[in-house]
């Protein structure tokens, strides 16, 4: 799976949120400064070519929808990052993340609960 450029990823996030969306709605939902319609159309075309976005014609308008699941996309790229930067060790990545993400005590407690739930699942 190809990685999206930053501008494409930002646009893809809006598509994931709305699931089916027209060009004008993407521009409206985009944070300021709003991009030009031609810019968004170009990004959408590139994202189609990469296999991330599809569309259906409704009259003269295209309604875009995601072809790639958000969790699948980010899982793949996090996996590549773990492989490239942490010697393919999820443990090293988790250690780095918890040490450097500046998590609050409440967030660390919540993370601890998630880890404990995963441990219970694995023991079953």
- Number of DSSP strand runs: 3
Query: First CA to last CA: what distance?
Result: 33 Å
**N-to-C order of helices and strands:** HEHHEEHHH
Give a short account of the largest sheet: 3 strands, antiparallel
Number of helices: 6
- Assembly type of the shown chains? single chain
Strand order of the largest sheet: 1-3-2
- The structural class is mainly alpha
Q: Any idea how many domains?
A: 2
**How would the global form be characterised?**
elongated
Poorly predicted spans = none
Strand content: 5-15%
CA radius of gyration is: 19 Å
The overall average pLDDT, rounded, is: 91
**CATH arch. level architecture of the largest domain:** Orthogonal Bundle
Task: Indicate the CATH class of the largest domain.
Answer: Mainly Alpha
CATH fold-level topology of the largest domain: Arc Repressor Mutant, subunit A
Percentage of residues assigned to helices = 55-70%
Structure report:
The chain is mainly alpha-helical and 124 residues long. The protein contains 6 helices and 3 strands; from the N terminus they run H-E-H-H-E-E-H-H-H. The chain has helices spanning 6-18, 23-29, 37-49, 70-85, 90-100, 105-123, and strands at residues 21-22, 53-58, 61-66.
């Amino acid at each position: 799976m190809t990685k999206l450029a930053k501008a494409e990823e930002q646009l893809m996030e809006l598509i994931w949120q709305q699931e089916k969306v027209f060009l004008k709605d993407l521009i409206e939902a985009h944070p300021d400064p709003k991009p030009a319609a031609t810019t968004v159309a170009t990004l959408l075309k590139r994202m189609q070519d990469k296999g991330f976005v599809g569309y259906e014609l409704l009259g003269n308008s295209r309604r875009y929808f995601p072809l790639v699941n958000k969790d699948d996309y980010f899982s793949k790229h996090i996996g590549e990052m773990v492989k490239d930067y942490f010697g393919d060790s999820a443990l090293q990545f988790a250690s780095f993340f918890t040490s450097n993400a500046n998590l609050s005590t409440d967030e660390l407690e919540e993370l601890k609960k998630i880890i404990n739930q995963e441990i219970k699942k694995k023991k079953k």
